[in-house]
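Hey, I was hoping to borrow your eyes for a little while. I've been puzzling over a protein and I'd love to understand its fold better. The fold is given in discrete form, as structure tokens running alongside the sequence. I'd be grateful if you could look everything over and explain what you see. No rush at all, and the record is pasted right below.
>
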Amino acid sequence: MDLIAGAIRTVASTTLDVLPVAIFLFFFHYVVLERKLANRNRIAFGFCLVVVGLGFFLVGLERGLFPLGRLMAEQLTSVSIEQALGVQVYWSDYYWVYLFGFAVGFGCTFAEPALVAVAMKAQAVSGGAVHPWGLRIAVALGVAIGVALGCLRIVTGTPLHWYIIAAYLVVVLQTAFAPRQIVPLAYDSGGVTTSTVTVPLVTALGLGLSEHVPGRNPLLDGFGLIAFACLFPIMSVLAYAQLSGFIEQRRLRRARHQITGSDIRSEED
């Protein structure tokens, strides 16, 4: 009964949050554009589905994903018990945390619906030059590395801005040398990853980890993993484009060398 009552309260609260947006859109359509709304019943039904879906999504976050993240962090940071007892513990003793963060980042991002949609659109717009599987793997690897590095930051307690500034310097250098047509897609890939699947699990992992590592503040250290998940996919997609361009240029040079060699042999004959 508590779960049902909580779900009803969440849906009601979500309705109040979404209602101003709906009122603004309807006002703009009727008053500014001065047009009648077609398929009003379908739109009203879709609006109800959105409200109910958002409500149940928030209930799932509160009841499932966030407690799961805290439980995972508690089990993975068992070495913190030894640290609390006075046993010397090093950052390398948390290797399971880094491996788990890498796996969570890669798995969540690869299954992210928004990334799948962007990858399909990129393939259609580029005429097949951008392969959706390659883009998804590159973005997922970037998020995985970013989450693992973010977990390392939480364990070591180093300032967040050190990592972010250094990473953005790398992104600026990559942007200067990467193919121009891939740069906008790479920058969008960072925002695409922070969607419905990745954000709840990564946030829960960061908060749970900061709560169970001694000396960490959940407010100061628990948040920040999303910044890593946004930034490192830009680096990985740019690196993927640069590597693909290098391989393509090398293949063309080999082809030209073979053609030149065959022309020389034919002239000698």
User: Anything to note?
Assistant: The chain has two domains: 1-76, 92-268. The first helix runs from residue 2 to 32. The chain has eleven helices and no strands. The CA atoms of residues 20 and 146 lie 36 Å apart.
